[in-house]
Amino acid sequence: MSAMFKRFKREPLLPILIVLVMLCLLVFIVYPLFQIAKSSFVGSTGEVGLEGYQRVLSGGGLFHALVNSLVLAVLTATLSTAIAYVFAYTFAYVKVPFKKLFNGIAILPVISPPFVIALSAMLLLGKQGLITKNLLGLENANIYGLHGLVLVQTLSFFPIAFLTLSGLLRSISPSLEEASQNMGASRLKTFLSVTLPLSVPGIANAFLLVFVQSLADFGNPMTIGGNYSTVAREIYLQAVGSYNLQAGAALAMVLLTVTIIVYILQNFWVGKKSYVTVTGKPTGQRRMIESGAVKHGLFTFCMIMSIAVIAFYALVPIGSFIKLWGINNSLTLDHYKYVFSIGQKAIKDTLTLAIVATPIAGLLGMIIAFLIVRKRFFGKKALEIISMLSIAVPGTVIGIGYILAFNKAPLALTGTGIIIVAAFVVRSMPVGIRSGVAALQQIDPSIEEAATNLGASGSKVFTSVVLPLIKSAFFSGLVNSFVKSMTAMSAVIFLISAKYNLITASILAQVEAGRIGVASAYCTILILIMIVALILLNLLVKWMGGKERSA
Amino acid sequence: MMGMKKWMSSITALTMAAMLFTGCGSAGGNNAAPANNGGGDAAPAKPQGKLTVYVGFQEDHAVAAIKKFTEDTGIEASMIRMSGGEILAKVRAEQGNPQADVWYGGPADTFVQATAEGLLQPYTSPIAEKVDAKYKDPDGNWTGIYVGALGFASNKEFLAKKGLEAPKTWEDLLNPAFKGEIVMADPASSGTAYTAMYTVLKVMGSEEKGFEYLSKLHPQIQQYTTSGSAPGRMVGMGEAGVGVLFAHDVIKYQEEGFDSLELTIPEDGTGYETGAIGIIKNTKNEELAQKFVDWALSPAGQEVGKTVGSYQNLTNPDAVGPEKAVKLSDINTIDYDVVEAGKERQRLIDKWSVEVKK
Questions:
Q1: What is the reported pLDDT for B20?
Q2: What is the pTM assigned to this prediction?
Q3: Residue A301, helix vs strand vs coil
Q4: In this predicted model, what pLDDT tens digit does every residue of A322-374 receive, in sequence order?
Q5: Measured between beta carbons, which residues in chain A are less than 8 angstroms from residue B28?
Q6: To the nearest whole angstrom, how far is the Cα of B340 from the nearest Cα of chain A?
Q7: Which of A140, A393, B7, B33 is most buried, judged by most C-beta within 10 A?
Q8: Which residues on B lie below 8 Å from A514 (Cβ)?
């Protein structure tokens, strides 16, 4: 008892914090999911039954969608993680020119709504595609379907994996690798027996992140999926088209189960190992690979990928000034006129809500990561699982769940900004948590213990010791939160109201109406906002914590 | 600097706690309705309060209409544009605490379904008597504001290359030359596609024959899009050869510069959409909502569309429709029974999903 009291006296904020965090997670994640679970058993006329689940598992269209989604997610996650690892490795270990450029390019796909890449894919590789028709002269190029989805999703999601991996690879202490090489191991042997095993948690995290992103993706299947139906799209069609909330919710529950299983497996496999490489001892600079086939090979790979990404992105700003792509290629400012007359409110609302949501999501993500890795308390596992749940549910379902959950007193939040901010936070927080956990797992607890023994309070330890050490992870978490919020669509498509409209909803409407120019103009503005925000965030992080560790 | 840091750290922690607390606190203790439903007592002289409108047609048209409404009446209104299916889902989900007052535009079939579920507040506008009986609900749950026929959009280059004529009947779509070249939307998500499906059943003479046709059409389809107007864009861009969508959307694409689009109307009979307006049940601004409906049915409200490139026919005979609109009197329309279409919607979509789409 007295021990507990002592602990409380030393860290008075901790229990309060834990309770608050838990409360928020319960209200904004568990309760809506509970509502969805409830709906999955209740038919439109109120009878309770398993009809929804029967439809999902009976081998019909819904079952196909489930299999399709899993195939797609595995392919995309594997490809994305592999590409991201090569990119991240090149950054951390190889002396190549254009590093800044590559870095920018790797982050680029993250700062725009995914379905824009889908549009570019059509413009580049469709029947009227620049590449397919004009360069290769193909008559009947079909970009719609699984191959198109894998391409577009990989381009969209590999940056997420990259952000997770690059921080991790940079923070691997060179001394271990040097030791290995001093003992006569070759570069390859060192890579296979030191670097790669040390990056396992990062790889697992990256894979997991992309996997669930791919499962929950809504924009790409809507635009480029063709007849390859996926779960998120099917849920949308069930809920919005057929008004069958039961089948949609049941499908979401099945999907959720799959994701949880994947998560538990990975956690089990990754969690068994220890990855402490930050020991508090000063580390030397890493010796970079400066020549040889490895360097040239990696450099070429990064170049090719970068050119591909640039090709996809150049189209968006270019397209925003072209009257009608492929049909009337004259230059025009009409699309911007349209955006600034009609889309002003959407831009303002999105920006406001995202700015509110970003610090909440970033801090909450870090605090939860800190609690998970460093603290022992009742309900920790629950906290961990709940906080990761949100990303597993397709956003469309979260949206419906929120409407079901927050429509009546005492939680009448529909139509308010709070509900959108909550959705932003819930959707973007897991990324911050994962990168925070990955970073924290590398820090030896003895550093914190030293600070605590010297009399620092819990919050002091967090801000003076932990935060600087996990700054790059925190920064990538902030960036991700902001970007995810600015480009969120599936979750909030149900939450937008006349009071708060969002850019992504407008873009989707324009895409559907075939005004690709207007959609591109919106996106160009969105990308500009992101770039400015990235620079500001970077400055903020520098100001908050002195100098960044050298990359 | 050290002091600064310490200060920063406690501030951060406190702010964090405060943010979480107020976030959850206001969530827990605030059951007041959102501010946009202000003004319960409408003064007879100048209406108090602000309207919220869910709009089911194109965004540019929506913005222009709301702006014009405020200019004409002095009543402030904000709007959000969604597809018909989304609006119905939202209105249904918000039953206990409606977030909008008026549902403006989109196919009447969904309004019929909403009426059956008791989601709409009946109101018969004095102007509604001018509207043809087949374009309105006798009990005033919804009233038609525009009408638009279904048509085929074909890509001229595609036709020329294959030496084909643009399809003139539903049967023409089964021509083997069109295999894998036809796009239409998915009836489950799109009001347009459901209109097409219901039309086919009528044109073919019976549900059985209609479904036989739909099964033959299925292998001809390159893809089912989510949104009803998307096939027009795909055909215009040469992604597909032929699309099934509303004629007014085809004209809109043509006007926007998709020169390769050719519009044909099925001669063996075509269906049409009745775009409707209705008041959402339990609105807190009933009087203002009624004013909005009156305005939307008036020539001033109906003629906004043609200024922003919407080419539907108007239901108010006093309103002058767009010149380019395809007039229902010039084409062979089926007897499109909106009420039956709305009532049968769910069953037919389910049947189609099971038997045709598989």
A1: 44
A2: 0.76
A3: helix
A4: 887 777 788 999 999 989 988 888 899 999 999 999 989 988 888 888 888 87
A5: 27, 410-411
A6: 17
A7: A393
A8: 229-230, 232-233, 236-237, 253, 256, 258
